[in-house]
Amino acid sequence: MKIYVGSQNPTKIDSVKRVFSEYEVIGMDVESKVAAQPFSDDETLEGAINRARECAFFDKCDLGIGLEGGVMEIEGDLYLCNWGALVDSKENVYTASGARIPLPDEIKADLEKGKELGEVMDEFANKNDVRKNEGAIGIFTNGSIQREEMFTHVVKLLRGQWEFEQ
Ligand SMILES: O=P(O)(O)OP(=O)(O)OP(=O)(O)OC[C@H]1O[C@@H](n2cnc3c(O)ncnc32)[C@H](O)[C@@H]1O
Ligand SMILES: [Mg+2]
């Protein structure tokens, strides 16, 4: 069975490889069809579903998976939010979200100026490609939960729901 993941980001591809270790997992560039920096649960979820759908329709693969990172506001605080979607060959759609933590006000201010979180995190942490490594969640949990681990949890939730229906 082939599984296409709608991203070239290693944290996303590796999380799918971890959960579907017995399958061939391939990352591919697809369009999320939402903003590069989604600003709500709805928009982030939509991006994940769009990525998964495009993957599922490509090359008649068995499963398409989309993972999308975004931010959403609760009572004035901006939280990291992450959504995943799995689309099977029958076009069934399964969805799940990841853990969320609030972002510091200075990060929120930068995002409101229109910057992408990936760029803001690199400046903040003085590192390159935080988004492809520990992620904002890794930085702000002092390394407790890294971006790949957070996505692994999301992909487990997707696989479990899909298997429940088989
Ligand atoms: O190549 P793709 O799959 O698009 O992966 P990405 O790292 O850009 O990730 P998303 O598009 O899913 O996330 C939307 C934006 O939020 C950023 N982002 C999301 N979560 C992040 C995190 O934990 N750490 C750093 N940047 C993050 C990301 O870099 C983008 O600018
Ligand atoms: Mg992106």
UniProtKB/TrEMBL annotation:
Lineage: Bacteria, Bacillati, Bacillota, Bacilli, Bacillales
NCBIfam families referenced in this protein's UniProt entry, alphabetically: PRK03114.1
Cofactor requirements of the protein: Mg(2+); Mn(2+)
Pfam families named in the record: NTPase_I-T
Organism: Halobacillus yeomjeoni
Top EC class of this enzyme: hydrolase
Binding site for Mg(2+): 31
Reactions the enzyme catalyzes: XTP + H2O = XDP + phosphate + H(+); ITP + H2O = IDP + phosphate + H(+)
Task performed by this protein: Phosphatase that hydrolyzes non-canonical purine nucleotides such as XTP and ITP to their respective diphosphate derivatives. Probably excludes non-canonical purines from DNA/RNA precursor pool, thus preventing their incorporation into DNA/RNA and avoiding chromosomal lesions.
Family stated for the protein in its record: Belongs to the YjjX NTPase family.
Name this polypeptide is given: Probable inosine/xanthosine triphosphatase
MF GO annotations: ITPase activity; metal ion binding; nucleotide binding
A Gene Ontology biological process term: nucleotide metabolic process
Cofactor: record remark: Binds 1 divalent metal cation per subunit; can use either Mg(2+) or Mn(2+).
Non-canonical purine NTP phosphatase/PRRC1 domain: residues covered: 6-155
Listed EC numbers: 3.6.1.73
Quaternary structure and interacting proteins, as annotated: Homodimer.
